[in-house]
Amino acid sequence: MGKVIRNLGVFQALWFLIVIGGDAFAVFAFGWALYHWVSYSDTRERLLLPIYAAIGLIFDGALTAVGVLTFSSNATLLPIWLIALWSIFPTTLNHGLKWCWSGPFWVLIASALGAALTYVGGARLGDLSFPYGDLTTTVILTISWVVYFTLIRQLSSVKA
Asked: The whole model's pTM is what?
């Protein structure tokens, strides 16, 4: 249980630091991602972490490209702080968020109440806005996260 709390605690602390502080604090996230990859990941997780992060970046990139998410920074597509968040989020999937894999109901709960609402919180604290409004964007994000969690759930069950 201590490892789960540590995993989620480090992620949450870095989330706040990066969302509030922006690009200047991205190095801490990249450092944690590397440390987790080397110290906590087994061979299979080492393979999957970059894939999970890339899929998340593709999702957020697509949402940004169609105007669901906008950033006030000068980022061409995605700001460095968001890339940093995507480097650390997958470190929670087989540790602090392992409960999500116990069934589709939990995937929906994690998508709607967890993932999508973190964007709303992030928008209140940092460099993110929702041109389509909070409700519409939250619905779009929930659907996107259900797809994301379903996809990575399928990827994690594929035998190497």
From this structure: 0.89
